[in-house]
């Protein structure tokens, strides 16, 4: 049995999937895979046995991706698995930014005793809000979450302006044609009444919203952060709120500096916390993990190229290597030199790394034993795995 180590509360749907596919959960210290949510792996020792790490969720800034890539460990996430949950909480937060709902609920509870209806009617003027219709929403990052937020805001009669320089032919199609595409982020910051950020935390995106960007916003603007702590400079946001340069800041990431601020609403990282999102993300994660460990197919990796092909031969060898010239010819020569016929060879590269999946039918035990060690001796090969098709 293969062992998977888990961190955090993983939905039983994902765990059951693994158990049904002959995995044991947390039974020993030599797991083949790790399945986690927000656990910070940067400070954890990751066992030498680990071949795959899967984040049940979108953000993977809690995983030491660079170090794992050098070790040949494939890191996955589950894109889109919780996007609807984050969209819904973002929309709720837009309404909280427009209407003083939280204060009004507190006030209503304080009116107990006597003529409740009279007192609420007299004082409710203090809880008047504004409408979202006709206002402009700026969406920074139009990926799985941002595109859903942007599209749904149109149905609330908002004007929507989005910014995402990373859109490609596959991702651009999901964005409604009524959404204005900004050429730069400054255009969004200047135009929007509500600004919501849906980008990953990377070195480049650290403090993407800082005092300079807040200075471009309208002083009446509302800022929403359902991405990550560290994408918005909370101290800059606080200073702007104190100086009436920003109206409200809603964040899903608690920060000591923001507690009890009258213009701040904090939620405890619950953007993706719905039953549906946790189930979907855990199931995606479990399937991707099993698929890689048993077939070599890579689906939704964040550090290696995806290769997802039907396993129709008896064997496969997956070779993770550096993305340098002459690798495919060296690998195919290696198999030829050892009298092993290649039925199919797939190769893809992304950034500094590449993955080659070799499909084989006739593969003797001696050849398999030799290939296991000798392939690793080819310069720039990082890790080799052999897969057996039990259904062949
Ligand atoms: N609060 C939560 O519980 C919760 C849940 C899900 C996701 N998240 C966070 O939200 C982020 C986005 O999630 P997603 O599922 O939409 O991810 P995604 O990968 O589908 O989309 C991210 C988009 O951001 C764009 N982008 C990156 N840097 C940018 C920049 N500087 N300016 C503009 N666009 C930029 C990318 O091109 C991509 O299209 C995740 O990385 C994660 O950190 C939080
Ligand atoms: O696991 C969670 O609860 C949060 C997930 C979220 O931060 C993500 O990046 O997908």
TrEMBL record:
Pfam families in the cross-refs: 2-Hacid_dh, 2-Hacid_dh_C
Catalytic activity: (2R)-3-phosphoglycerate + NAD(+) = 3-phosphooxypyruvate + NADH + H(+); (R)-2-hydroxyglutarate + NAD(+) = 2-oxoglutarate + NADH + H(+)
Function comment: Catalyzes the reversible oxidation of 3-phospho-D-glycerate to 3-phosphonooxypyruvate, the first step of the phosphorylated L-serine biosynthesis pathway. Also catalyzes the reversible oxidation of 2-hydroxyglutarate to 2-oxoglutarate.
Molecular functions per Gene Ontology: NAD binding; phosphoglycerate dehydrogenase activity
Alphabetized InterPro entries for the sequence: ACT-like_dom_sf, ACT_dom, D-isomer_2_OHA_DH_cat_dom, D-isomer_DH_CS1, D-isomer_DH_NAD-bd, NAD(P)-bd_dom_sf
Record EC number: 1.1.1.399, 1.1.1.95
Family of the protein in this entry: Belongs to the D-isomer specific 2-hydroxyacid dehydrogenase family.
Species assigned in the record: Leuconostoc inhae
Family annotation (Gene3D superfamilies): 3.30.70.260, NAD(P)-binding Rossmann-like Domain
Keyword Electron transport: no
Domain of life, per lineage: Bacteria
Catalytic EC class: oxidoreductase
Keyword set, alphabetical order: NAD, Oxidoreductase
Domain ACT: start-end pairs: 316-389
Pathway: Amino-acid biosynthesis; L-serine biosynthesis; L-serine from 3-phospho-D-glycerate: step 1/3
Protein name: D-3-phosphoglycerate dehydrogenase
CDD domains recorded: PGDH_like_3
């Amino acid at each position: 049995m293969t062992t998977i180590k888990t961190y955090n509360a993983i939905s039983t749907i994902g765990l059951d999937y693994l158990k049904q596919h002959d995995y044991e959960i947390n039974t020993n210290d030599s797991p083949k895979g790790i399945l986690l949510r927000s656990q910070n792996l940067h400070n954890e020792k990751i066992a030498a046995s680990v071949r795959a790490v899967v984040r049940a969720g979108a953000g993977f800034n809690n995983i030491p991706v660079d170090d794992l890539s050098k070790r040949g460990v494939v890191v996955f996430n589950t894109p889109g698995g919780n996007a609807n949950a984050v969209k819904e909480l973002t929309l709720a937060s837009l309404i909280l930014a427009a209407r003083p709902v939280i204060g009004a609920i507190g006030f209503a509870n304080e009116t107990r005793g006597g003529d409740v209806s009279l007192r609420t009617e007299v004082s409710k003027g203090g809880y008047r809000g504004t409408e979202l219709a006709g206002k402009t929403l700026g969406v920074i990052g139009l990926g799985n979450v941002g595109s859903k937020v942007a599209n749904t805001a149109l149905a609330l009669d908002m004007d929507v302006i989005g910014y995402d320089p990373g859109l490609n032919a596959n991702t651009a199609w999901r964005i409604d044609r009524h959404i204005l595409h900004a050429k730069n982020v400054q255009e969004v910051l200047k135009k929007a009444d509500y600004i919501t950020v849906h980008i990953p935390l990377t070195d480049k995106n650290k403090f993407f919203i800082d005092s300079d960007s807040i200075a471009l916003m309208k002083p009446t603007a509302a800022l929403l952060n359902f991405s990550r702590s560290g994408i918005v400079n909370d101290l800059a946001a606080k200073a702007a709120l104190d100086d009436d340069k920003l109206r409200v800041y809603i964040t899903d990431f608690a920060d000591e500096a923001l507690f009890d601020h009258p213009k701040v609403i904090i939620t405890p990282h619950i953007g993706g916390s719905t039953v549906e999102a946790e189930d979907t993300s855990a199931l995606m994660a479990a399937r991707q993990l099993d698929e890689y460990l048993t077939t070599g197919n890579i689906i939704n990796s964040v550090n290696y190229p995806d290769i997802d092909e039907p396993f129709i031969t008896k064997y496969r060898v997956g070779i993770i290597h550096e993305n340098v010239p002459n690798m495919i010819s060296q690998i195919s020569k290696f198999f030829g030199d050892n009298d092993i016929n290649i039925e199919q060879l797939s190769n893809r590269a992304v950034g500094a790394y590449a993955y080659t999946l070799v499909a084989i039918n006739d593969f003797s035990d001696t050849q398999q034993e030799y290939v296991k060690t000798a392939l690793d001796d080819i310069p720039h090969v990082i890790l080799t795995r052999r897969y057996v098709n039990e259904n062949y």
